[in-house]
Design brief:
This protein has 4 helices and 6 strands, in the order H-H-E-E-E-H-E-E-E-H. The protein is α+β, with helices and mostly antiparallel strands. The chain binds methionine sulfoxide (SME).
Length: 160
Amino acid sequence: MADKAETFADLLPEIEMVLKAGAPRDAKLQRVCDILKTRVPYFDWVGFYLTDPEKPDDLVLGPFNGAPTEHVRISVGAGICGRAAQTRRLFVVQDVSKETNYLACGPDVKAEIVLPILVGGGIWGELDIDSHTLSPFSSEDGEFLGKVCALVAEMVRSRS
Ligand code: SME
């Protein structure tokens, strides 16, 4: 792929435009998944998990692009997603085979990055990305995806 920094610099304004457009929320989140999955070769599964308003200790699968997953509901504390929700911090795993608290999605997945999306001091949801490449994520990925999550949070706040 082209230089990571260059690719991310191109994608950010595109994603910002999608999130600021007048379309239904889930259609915009779906578009963000589609852009990330198709334009970054080592992003093999891209999806959002959203906090269940009825049961705030659960994350429910929202829009995604990639193979269907059995993990459509994840409790806070369970797996990488659940722990990112618990700590409210970026969670990067460069080699999932070394993780004990991990919810496997398939034998091809080698690495995962999860970022919480914080709105009003609470977890609104998460952006979750699986990779079939070992150790694919650098600080550039964290920074770029953090900006994507900040744009999602801004969209959510502007509608509430
Ligand atoms: N691997 C995740 C579960 C979700 S899938 O990656 C889509 C986890 O351990 O939380």
